[in-house]
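# step 3/5: fold
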Amino acid sequence: MAFSLERRTNDIEALKTETLDVLIIGGGITGAGCALQASASGLKTGLVEMQDFAEGTSSRSTKLIHGGLRYLKNFDVEVVAETVQERAVVQRIAPHIPKPDPMILPVYDEPGSTFSMFSLKVAMDLYDRLADVTGTQYANYTLTPEEALERVPQLKREGLLGAGVYLDYRNNDARLVIENIKQAAADGGRMLSRMKVKKILHDAQGKAAGAEVEDLLTGEIIQIKAKTVLNTTGPWSDTIRQMDDQIEALPQMRPTKGVHLTVDKDRLFVPQPTYFDTGKQDGRMVFVIPREGKTYFGTTDTDYKGDFTHPSVEQEDVDYLLDIINERYPSAQITLDDIESSWVGLRPLIASSGGADYNGMSSQQIEEDSIDEVLAIVEQYQQGKAERFEVADVLKNIEKSGGETDDNPSTLSRGSALDIDSDGLITVAGGKITDYRKMAIGAVKTVIDRLNSDFGEHFEQIDSAKYPVSGGRLDPHNVENALAELTQAGIDKGLAERDAEYLANLYGSNTPAVLSLLDDVTQIPGLSLADSLSLHYAMREEMALTPSDFLIRRTNHMLFMRDTLDSIIEPVTREMTRYNGWSEKQSSYFKDELQKALDESDLKHLKEAKVK
């Protein structure tokens, strides 16, 4: 059965009577990855998410699959090696989503700089070796100040020492989540959005055995029974554990807030993703990314203790980012009125871990005398001539300068943690999007071990490094040609080349299924043919239940196509109302829900306050 509203209704009815092998709470990237692996391994799997899939943190990232060059400023070689290797795996199993997009890193002569030109080149060479791109088209190179300014004319000239260019990957975070969710559903998993957990259920022995949940679409409350329960709710991890009355759940999360702002490329033009120090000597770095005719930049990193469901962009967030951008691109002079859209997410940081952060470890610098020793031992390790402990010994004794305090949220770890409470509730938390599959491996292995030891059930965990997500059945070594063929198929069906290319890149190997809708979907008044197909595919195959689901997370209309969004809201809402049989009240509710999201993204509250 297709992954649609009808499938949702049937799955809810089935969950009223059956007992799952695992109930996953949380439909972000970690939960989605766990659901795919569990379902594909034969476990009877269910997942509940109180919002839309990816509506929280997993649609609010910087939208890159990082290789972790930033970690090399402290020569955290093992982290980078694992990160670039895992990035290659994600590109293999979801080849239509991460795309190579080399990044430029300008270096300035200023206090607190992360890199000098020398240390940057050393780091990039080591990075290329770890990523296995030395000698390829993606090998790093450096630019003189004049070359950097020729490429990025708006870049600040004063103090510019040059720049480095190295490989990174752009990403569509929400699409990566939904493609994992769809594959889990295709493998028999029961994937349910807008189902809110009210409490953890227990069996006669006091073990976690399911959850009581509320269907937020109907108000119905049901009990879902499961042999194991897996908490993958990110910033909400503590909240779910505190619902469990059989354990004493001490808080372990320290969420921080990250803000991104979008302007038109005519206001801020960058030819490729750019990454640089803030210039504020705060140990942080900022991204500036071109995308779909727009330029977005971020991010902030501040402690957050407000409403996890609705974090908001505040004036101080905007001031911080605009101050950095206007200092680095003096001719741009971006103002609040230039901001077309925004997003804010919460990073699920683990409070007990110190020393590393989303923006690149601590601000401590490596003494150059240690560089040769590090390079030598890493090369020996890569060649199998040195053991891991020998690398660790060298890294442990690296001479550093500077320091940081533990109360800075930017020093918290993006590392993950897997914990099992006394009643068997399993929680996997922390981490970053690049590592989602590896986090899922550990979590699902724990579930399988529990099913074996407590229930005598045996499952063989799939090799998820070779198991594509939905839409990912393309040759990862020949992605461009494969997408070109899919684009041509759309053109042959009557689509404009730009629209056909858009669909191919959005849906990958599912593009033929999208194009097949031409047999019974006519162009919707007010929408392009491509958007008409995309909308129906989202409703029929991607569990898009509201206009917000479609316009914000199944597509990037709100974030990167804001100037055409207003014209399609009405036809999208009208068609979803017709297709789903909504009442006028329901239609109005979902339209109001979208308008609130748009007002938040538009920073309406800040722009109106400025006028007053």
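# step 4/5: annotate
The CA atoms of residues 102 and 167 lie 4 Å apart.
# step 5/5: archive (pending)
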